[in-house]
Specification:
CATH topology: Glutaredoxin
CATH class: Alpha Beta
Structural class: alpha+beta
Number of helices: 7
Shape: globular
Largest sheet: 4 strands, mixed
Length: 180
């Protein structure tokens, strides 16, 4: 009887401890992603998002669309970092994610915001494209690519960071244009 009581106590303590654990830190997630990328010879795509963000959900839907999913699965280890959660849901945020977003100059650009790294942790690209307004050049977050210009930027990034064929890139272009 003592063994059963002790086992129940250990189980309850473990469940309480587990339920009190928050989400993994950005550092832990990225460390795991880089290890997987090295093992699988892939790049890492990290997407900053929040549960309330409609465009973040559109990005995930597009990446997971059966017409293009295999292209992303074959080339990237994709991970999500939660930032900017709504009031009352802040506990969903990954510790250190906002700092990482700021480090890559995306804190004021909205979400989703994505970054691509090689397997050796070298930064390759992000979701910002160059735009010109009133003769002033600036960087604009494409977030979930949808417009012709945003999708063109996304395809250019994929050309530089993957070995996707023109046919595969065209399928991705077609799928992401459906986001508009």
């Amino acid at each position: 009887m003592k063994k059963i009581s002790s086992l129940i106590l250990i189980l309850i303590t473990g469940l309480v401890s587990y339920s009190q654990m928050g989400p993994a830190s950005a550092e832990e997630i990225m460390k795991e992603a880089y290890a997987a990328a090295r093992k699988e010879s892939k790049k890492v795509m990290v997407i900053f998002h929040a549960s309330w963000c409609g465009w973040c959900h559109k990005m995930d839907t597009a990446l997971n669309d059966p017409s293009v999913k295999v292209y992303f699965d074959n080339n990237f280890v994709i991970r999500h970092l939660v930032v900017f959660e709504s009031k009352g849901k802040e506990k969903l945020e990954n510790p250190g994610a906002l700092e990482m977003l700021a480090k890559y100059n995306g804190k004021d650009d909205g979400i989703p915001f994505w970054l691509i790294f090689d397997k050796d942790e070298k930064f390759l690209a992000d979701s910002r494209m160059k735009t010109t307004a009133n003769g002033v050049e600036k960087l604009q977050n494409t977030g979930c690519p949808a417009s012709q210009e945003e999708v063109k930027h996304f395809i250019e990034v994929l050309k530089k960071t993957t070995s996707l064929s023109e046919d595969e890139l065209e399928k991705i272009r077609i799928r992401f244009r459906r986001n508009e």
